[in-house]
Design brief:
The protein is mainly β. Helices cover about 10% and strands about 40% of the residues. The strands form two sheets. Strands 1, 2, 5, 6, 7, 8, 9, 10, 11, 12, 13, 14, 15 and 16 form a 14-stranded antiparallel beta sheet that branches. The chain has a two-stranded antiparallel sheet with strand order 3-4.
Length: about 260
Amino acid sequence: MSFVRDTAVRRSGDHFDAEVVPGWDVAGNANGGYLMAIAARAMAAVSKPHPVALTAHYLAPAKPGPVTVRPRVVKEGRRFSTVSASLEGAERPLIQLLGSFADLGEVEGPVRIDAEPPELPAPEDCFAMKRSGGGSPPPLMSHLDLRLHPDDARFAQGAPTGRPEFRGWLRMRDEPLDAFALLLAVDVFPPTIFNANLPIAWTPTLELTAHVRGLPVEGWLRCRFSTRFITGGLLEEDGEIWDESGRLVAQSRQLALVPRA
């Protein structure tokens, strides 16, 4: 299986056809970042090559099978294009998206970073999320090499830290990461609530926003995801992703439902 192939889109008149491929799911529902990447490829095909800021509102779970993406250019600028899109299944719409697209190789400007990548042990000293059948970790982990900070991984042994945070290393198993794979990367770590002494269960995403800040160099990504606010049955999750050169390449914010016991 290949992420590039499994997120490919095919133009068909005024829309694009694609396939939600089995194996990129959590509990039978396709991963939200994977679906966002499918839609983003169609949106880039009608505008500029890379997603820069992309927001997705999730309307219904997606199962394996054919989907349709209907992108529409809202504004075509010199540096940035604004594009809306819907990703639809055979029976109902699944996601509504709005994003800005550009050529990340040409975007330049001053740099000031008042933060640092998370401190992590070497990947070989971290906890590997390996797919071994059953329901945990989910099937999409067979495509990814995800290594959690040992302190944050204790939730898997029934000893959550009480701090809603996950830190770790991430890379694809068989192919390099590109701008579209960063959309997947912001949504593949365990939900932060798993370390918050609250029920561990499916955590449905209502809305996910991803900011792609640069094209990653080859190698590991350093990732941190944390939550500060759990209220009204909802939680926010803030993510940051740094490449092996120490450069910030993606950020995210997600609003999700708190699992029920």
